[in-house]
Amino acid sequence: MEKKVLLGNEAIARGAYEAGCHVATAYPGTPSTEILETIARDYRDIKSQWSPNEKVALEVAAGASVAGARALAAMKHVGLNVAADPLFTFSYTGVNGGFVIINADDPMAWSSQNEQDNRHLARAAKVPMIEPSSPQECKDFTKLAFEISEKYDRPVIVRITTRIAHSQGIVTIEPKQDVPVKPFVRNFKKYVMLPVHARPRHVFIEEQHLKLKEYSDTSGLNRIEWGKSKKRGIITDSVAYQYVKEACPDDSVLKIGMVWPMPDRLIREFAAGVETLYVVEELDPFIEDYVKALGIPCTGKEIIPICFELTPEIVDQALNGRAHPGKYPKYETEPIPPRPPALCKGCPHGFVFSVLGKLDLIVNGDIGCYTLAALPPYSAMHTQGCMGAGIGMHLGMEKAHGPEMARRSVAVIGDSTFVHSGITPLIDLVYNRGTGTVIILDNRGTAMTGHQDHPATGKTLMGEETHALDLELLAKACGVKRVVVTDPKNMDEFERIVREEVAAPEPSVIISKRKCILMK
Amino acid sequence: MKNVIFAGVGGQGVILASKILMEVAMNAGYDVKESEVHGMAQRGGSVDCNVRYGEKVYSPLIPREEADFIVSLEMLEVLRKLDYLAPAGKLIVNREKVDPAPVQTGAMKYPSDIEEWVGKNVKNAVFVDTEAILKELGTRKALNIVMLGILSKDLEFTGEQWEAAIRSLVKEKFLDMNLKAFTMGREYKETA
Ligand SMILES: Cc1ncc(C[n+]2csc(CCOP(=O)(O)OP(=O)(O)O)c2C)c(N)n1
Ligand code: SF4
């Protein structure tokens, strides 16, 4: 069989292809982005697309599934927050064609605003979740997810983390399975979630949950690997499994590949077979709390950190008491300068933030390359939470202090972020009689995550020409009368415009239009 | 198991260098794993790739104190990685300096005695001068492959094995340049 070195994300794309997936959707976000980029590049018979945000991506995939196709939606962990509303109810409707959601968590927040642990979301939404621990499993589990989805009539989440998504390994390549698109069958008790339909669907989900529990115990996704020694037993999942196998080669391991529903019987059998039980998992004590709730004592977060990602040496230290301080002296002649990421030289955002800094405005920022302007040398961003939050916060500040506040503050948002979740707060700003200024940083793409197209660029993920959303018209349609389009490189002109619009006692939108220098 | 860390600055191409090493190792029958950074760190931040190959590889991350080689494409970056070097491990450091932001703004100084300090404290370290090679190649983009060529002398694979891996991973358009870059690295004479 052919073997290839693949990135975890490429292996997921390959798995979707081999499973005969028909439709794949996503909004970019590290560490999930390469999944759809690989599908669009290498597996062109899958209809793939960037959606404006994760909620829409999940809904398009849900529609494809209900219509009878195998469908996949991919997103980073915070993206699943945006898509949580459809997730929780499509959990009730279930599927027709297999429906797989790839969720990429980011322990260590390498490229994220938080370290949330989305295993909780599987439990909360009552959706099965499986967790690969290597590139080979990324491919195998993605294929399996489609089967589980169709067999149990459930959407299935495949949870990866940064170290799974962005690590490479050997993967066996298999042929594509041809799966026909099933017909759409009208079934309004299943697909229309009126309260009278939701109640019986809830009962159905609980029944499926019990069947899936059985599957969790018997499918092999969860498995006991008895070691040379049964003194210590370690329950572990995801990449932590690899660290445990490396640090504790003789111990017995219960490898969790399906983390929801959990395999009660296997856990009991494993616990009964070892002298002391440990749980090694990244982030929250998800497995540990479950095991303890079964009445089984174990050691977990007492010795395994709850914050940040794990490493093989953290596991070795916690379980074997071996420290890894380094074998060489520490360089102490001079402090080692850090190398923080920074805006590229000549970046269009640089002009904007030089002006905002000079005018000493309060800047409600958002997420993208431009968030780096919160750091020196610009230090010109004062709030930033999640995508799209800046405009709402800007209005909130005005509500707190009165219109005078809007005379010394702005909201700044990237073009991709504006389309993702900036339009509704702009409508709110106008509707609720705000007078603030919103600057849209239109650099013609989603730069932070690798320059992807979005609805305002006129190109799709598959490279087709399409309508380019007109941001100027859109702002006007939201009710903003003062809309200015300008190139920030002319900084004097840009400064004059910002002064004028911030002073104006009514809503303004400044579209700062200049292409990212790294974009073709 | 062999453990190799490629360290550098966003944009220097450490990922391609690791991919070629993995391809060579896989074709030679080894299990391989690797871990890399994407996203935020690529905007001019520090980046590194961990490559491991052997009979069976579990963790994609190399534990501290276990790297057999650290190949640093930039001088300063080697200081951040030193804790990963095994007692018998080797450092291969490119003499290029890329000023980090705090140095550019004048807030901090670029450490001036890295080579001297490493010479004193790490017995198995070489500093290499790739400037002349890159001039002759006419592109700075080949630095990653030149460094891979230098590393290749210490690994067990043959020239043909390396060439096959480069051919399978590098785009046609850049192939000749990269093969030449690799050979020049492989033939580089260390002046310790
Ligand atoms: C809900 C959510 N989805 C995705 C991301 C990842 N992400 C961060 S910023 C960003 C878009 C940046 O594009 P843009 O707003 O155009 O700014 P630019 O980087 O181009 O300056 C994305 C996709 C995220 N942080 N949160
Ligand atoms: S990638 Fe583009 S938008 Fe991002 S910092 Fe560089 S020039 Fe600016």
Explain this structure.
- With 520 residues, chain A is of the alpha/beta class.
- Chain A folds into 3 domains: 3-181 and 188-218, Thiamin diphosphate (ThDP)-binding fold, Pyr/PP domains (Rossmann fold); 223-320, Rossmann fold (3-Layer(aba) Sandwich), CATH 3.40.50.920; 348-513, 3-Layer(aba) Sandwich (Rossmann fold).
- Chain A is built from 21 helices and 18 strands.
- Chain A has helices at 8-18, 34-42, 54-66, 77-82, 84-93, 119-125, 135-152, 162-165, 188-191, 195-218, 238-247, 264-273, 286-293, 312-320, 348-358, 389-401, 403-406, 415-421, 423-431, 471-477, 491-503, and strands at 3-7, 23-26, 47-50, 71-76, 99-105, 129-130, 156-161, 167-172, 223-225, 232-237, 252-256, 258-260, 276-280, 362-364, 409-414, 437-442, 482-486, 508-513.
- A 7-stranded mixed beta sheet of chain A has the order 3-2-4-5-7-6-12. A 5-stranded parallel beta sheet of chain A has the order 14-15-16-18-17, with helices on both faces.
- In chain A, 40% of the residues lie in helices and 17% in strands.
- Chain A is globular, with a radius of gyration of 25 Å.
- With 192 residues, chain B is an alpha/beta fold.
- Chain B has one domain (2-186): Pyruvate-ferredoxin oxidoreductase, PFOR, domain III (Pyruvate-ferredoxin Oxidoreductase, domain 3, 3-Layer(aba) Sandwich), CATH 3.40.920.
- Helix content of chain B is 39%, strand content 22%.
- Chain B contains 8 helices and 6 strands, in the order βαβββαβααβαααα.
- Chain B has helices at residues 14-27, 77-81, 101-104, 114-121, 131-137, 143-152, 159-169, 172-186; strands spanning 2-9, 31-35, 46-54, 67-72, 85-94, 125-128.
- In chain B, strands 2-3-1-4-5-6 form a 6-stranded mixed beta sheet, with helices on both faces.
- In chain B, helix 1 packs across helix 7 (159-169) and helix 6 (143-152) crosses helix 8 (172-186).
- At the A-B interface, strand 1, strand 8, helix 11 and helix 14 of A face helix 1, strand 2, helix 2, strand 5 and helix 3 of B.
